[in-house]
Amino acid sequence: MEDLKLDNILLTLDGHVKVADYGLCKEEMWFGQTTSTFCGTPEFMAPEILLEQRYGRAVDWWAFGVLTYEMLLGQSPFRGDDEDEIFDAILEDEPLYPITMPRDAVSILQKLLTRDPNRRLGSTKEDADEIKRQPFFKDVSWDDVVNKRIPPPYFPTINGSADTSNFDEEFTREQPTLTPVHGQLSARDQSEFNGFSCRSYQSSAIPL
Predict the structure, then answer these.
(1) Mean pLDDT across the chain, nearest whole number?
(2) Alpha-helical regions (H) of 76-146
(3) What SS3 class is residue 139?
(4) Which of 3, 139, 163, 168 is catalytic?
(5) What per-residue string of b and e applies to 9-29 under the rule 16 or more CB within 10 Å gives b?
(6) Fewer CB in 10 Å around end: N or C, the chain?
(7) CB of 26 closer than 8 Å to CB of 2
(8) Which residues are CB-contacts of 90 (< 8 A; sequence separation ≥ 6)?
(9) Which fold, 6-146?
(10) Residue 18 parent element (H or E)
(11) Rounded to an integer, what distance in angstroms lies between the CA atom of residue 27 and that of residue 22?
(12) What are the extents of the domains in the chain?
């Protein structure tokens, strides 16, 4: 996934959740396979990404830990006034857990937010099965979750497919700016593509 965060968890009309925005995801990342792209949302990026190391699927379980922390406590485990401070916090700070937080919740968060990806919960071949067995989820029937048999605690109210009342006004107040359908590149912009095997049909062909 590489960009798991609250912004990408959406509610459907029937009250169940769906993960959205796969723009940064990598396909066929099986156990043992790694990549090295520096990408993601700062608060959710795993230490191995920040250290520019090769990384595998365990980065998603780190992000899941951050997401779970935010859902339980309403704040990020790693905070800062800018990206650099957030990155320093991810690499050096220990998340704080209220004394009132249930032990099972603290346990799974500590295991998910383990900086060493090889020791992080979910990093083995068992992947998600390792997470599902945690005491934190002891009352969850995963078969019921997958088949949407658990009654959702909240149903979004909308007045039609174009209703935007559930979106933040910060976004709905913005004036949309459309890219011209038949926009034409200037000669200067077109020159940036010199040397490519294909250019605009309006430009002269480049011999291969």
Answers:
(1) 88
(2) 83-92, 103-112, 128-132, 142-146
(3) coil
(4) 3
(5) eeeeeeeeeeeeeeeeeeeeb
(6) C
(7) yes
(8) 45, 46, 47, 50, 78
(9) Transferase(Phosphotransferase); domain 1 (1.10.510)
(10) strand 17-19
(11) 10
(12) 6-146
Is the whole model's pTM more than 0.85, yes or no?
no
Task: State both tokens at 13.
Answer: 């009309």
pLDDT for the residue numbered 206:
47
206: which residues sit within 8 A by CB, 6+ positions away? Answer: 194, 195, 196, 197, 199
User: Each residue of 47-67: b (16+ CB within 10 Å) or e?
Assistant: bbbbeeeebbbbbbbbbbbbb
14 is catalytic: no
* In contact, 123 and 113? CB cutoff 8 Å: no
Q: Which two three-digit tokens encode residue 149?
A: 């048999």
Helix (H) / strand (E) element for 188: namely: helix 187-190
Q: CB of 1 within 8 A of CB of 60?
A: yes
Contact between 50 and 91 (Cβ < 8 Å): yes
Residue 48, both tokens: 């191995």
Task: Give the pLDDT confidence score for residue 208 in this predicted structure.
Answer: 47
Three-class DSSP category at 99: coil
